[in-house]
## 1
Amino acid sequence: MGSLVSLSLGTSFAKSLFPLVGAAGTTTFRLVFATALLMLLWRPWRRSWQRSDWPALAAYGLTLGTMNLLFYNAIKTIPFGLAIAIEFSGPLAVAIWSSRRWLDGLWVLLAISGLALLLPLPGLDSTALDLVGVGFALAAGGCWALYIVFGQRVSKRFGAMATPMGMLFAAAAVTPFGIAEAGTALLDSTLLVSGLAVALLSSAIPYSLEMYALRHLPKQTFSILLSLEPATGAVAGWMVLGEQLSGLQLLAMALVMVASMGSAWSHTRGPVIHDAP
């Protein structure tokens, strides 16, 4: 929950930087500063790394960096809350694929119903969605699904050290795109401070918390709990960007929250199914 709140506030603030450094520049700020902070916090150089460790960390980091870059490009042209709902197709797919109990299907259906209410209803919304933005959000959802799978593997293998090392690969992959889009604006002192704030709220804090969660939850529970993000994102959008919340959005948030709580409750009633190492 702490991860979701921090991430939503950070992403809402990050959107305000788009006119100055673009989506790729903002993503670069986020990942580069977050990498530096996490490196200082966890000091992964204390561990003896082997060549065989790099493929798993690279897959996790590249997925993470691509997911961030795609999502920031999505919210350039489509609403923040809607982009989250579309992106959520990824973790929901993981939840369905990983399900071992019929009751999990009920929670997934409730979550899908809530997320569907966040989409514009035919005939009631005259604003056409930008198809490129929708495509970016869907692609980010695919990366999010892979992030859950890769993230759980590296967290079990490397523990907390997986976070800074994965972020290092993510920053290295995205920085060339940020330089190409923003150029020397990335060196502006005022923007550097803003970029540091984005990194703290959007990456350093939430990804550290998520790594802890991934080590203690099965994928399907982790995925359903993340379905609270549309709600926290909508609230953050209202607080930071001045976006208004409709009754339909509030109903959608309630359905998603019930699904998340129901999934967490059901897994306390019996054995927990974990992936093989």
## 2
Amino acid sequence: MKHHPTIPRYVCHLGLLVFMIIHALGYAQTSTVPFVYGDALPDAPELAPRGPYKVGVRTLDFVHMGQVDILNSKAGVDPRYDRLLKVEVWYPAVLPEGAEEITLYEDVMGVAGDSLRPLLPFTFPGRALRDAQPLAPGGAYPLVVVSHGYLGSRYLMTYLTENLASKGYIVVAIDHMESTFRDAAGFQSTLLNRSQDIGFVVGEVASLGKQGSGHFLSGLVDAENTAIIGYSMGGYGVLNLAGAGFSDAMVGFFAGMTGGSKAIAVLSARNPQYQASSDRRIKAVVALAPWGMERGVWDADGLKGLTTPTFFVAGSEDDISGYEKGIKAIYEGAVNADRYLLTYRNARHNIAPNPPPAASLQPGLHFDEYYRYAEPSWDQRRINNINQHFITAFLGIYLKQEDYGNYLNVREDSNEKVWPGFVPRSATGMQLLRDGPGE
């Protein structure tokens, strides 16, 4: 039911807005914009702050031709169509003299076609310069491809995408067709296309990044050292692309919801084509609140196919993906991978997005516009900083061979001892597990 604001609710929203403004001013950096998503709070862990590079940002359009049009599948007959994938690229850049590293991102909240949650455009600032000249490196930069949830957008995690680009990565975030706020469509499209979209974008960016391509990315991309990062349905997608083949139960479930189509069987653990499709360029996986385990998407055999080092992030009270029988069960079942599980105690599902945009605080909006982003038990900015810290360490180890192992070799429970890189008294309410083949 659509919310009709009362005076107390309005006052609550107003107070929250004032609170955010005051705190943003308190954490001001050298910029005309006082606080931007991803800026380091006073208690941010050591690897959270931005790196030495200035950041540029550009928008590209890709077309994945001839894909199964599952939304128009009938009686098991699958027509074909072209998938339009808009992506955002963040990269180390050269800023002209006097230019400021600030841009405005244009996004929407709401759900396409939903009268209770109509699309509402909004903007928010980021620390990147639109269309800046790329910085030619001594060598190419590792590639990171990022996949949002259902529903979401390529701007859902700018706190992380900008941060990684400032540390010497080419970072590409995808708008997954039929899975964004702007073009929400049947869930079966996301189930089928998520991992295939990610794999396609890895290949396209790798091609554009080759020397002599004539593209602005020419010579900038070290695709042989690629990481894939996904949140929720993005986590579902990156795990499948990295080797966690879907179960027979998933193939049957998909057929049941699509009128008999078995198009998803090409992504199942039993399929020889899938077994031979491993992309050896992918050296690291980050799965934030990955969806699917509680619904039977994977079984033990499928999870054994995941051999790429993987960093899982979860909330212990995740009510979307599940924890003990969901995310933690994936972590425990991926017995052939070096893997980590960072758990935010008492957190629910929203352990990956930017903080709620100011537009979501408007009185009268559907509550879910705020709760698309907000985490009830944690300060979202604090989670963002912690994610930046651990993902920097993880990617640094597996993509750049940097000596960050100390930051990941910690006591399981953060309440027992100060974790390396954390300000005293600040590492509370978390657990970090680590396991690997033969351990």
## 3
Amino acid sequence: MLALQETIRPSADLRNHYNEISKQCREGNEAVIITVNGRGDTVSLAYEEYKRMKARIELLEILAEAENDVKNGNTAPVRNTFDDLKEILREGSI
């Protein structure tokens, strides 16, 4: 996993140098933090990086739910799970 670099730029740069910031995000694998009055306000990311981050977050949420189910004993035998999946595939529900 590559670490996402961060750059801080003032909001005026977003107005005056949008193409440069866009290229920086897309080609440099960078998150550009936009500041207003010296404080962080927004973050600009390449669209592909945004989709990757969103997918990671969704996966982490699923894993957290699964971990919670295991802790609370809300589990089923693996055989039941495979049987359920086979039935779903037979029905063409997926």
## 4
Amino acid sequence: MGEWGLAVDHSTVHRWALKLLPLLEKAFRRHKRPVGKSWRMDETYIKVNGDWKYLYRAVDKEGNTVDFLLRAHRDQAAARRYFEKAIALNGVPEKVTIGKSGANLVSRVRNSFH
């Protein structure tokens, strides 16, 4: 904005982002290819701009991205919401293969008792 001679406060940009990003996500999802019914889900730890982040991701059998979630901290509740959102947007998969990370094993054991 400075290149155009406009002075914009960071809070204004933040408000624009909060308003526009959901609209952009909706528009991009309309053009997304359909995904298969067999999903592979995993969690990994990646470096983004010098900070380590948790990346939860789901891909179908052909390698098409179903959805992903990037978090600063490991969060089981957020991962569950992410999975439920992926199902709501893409339909219930016939099969889900989960990685063998410690977090996934713990959640499988906890969920088997409920």
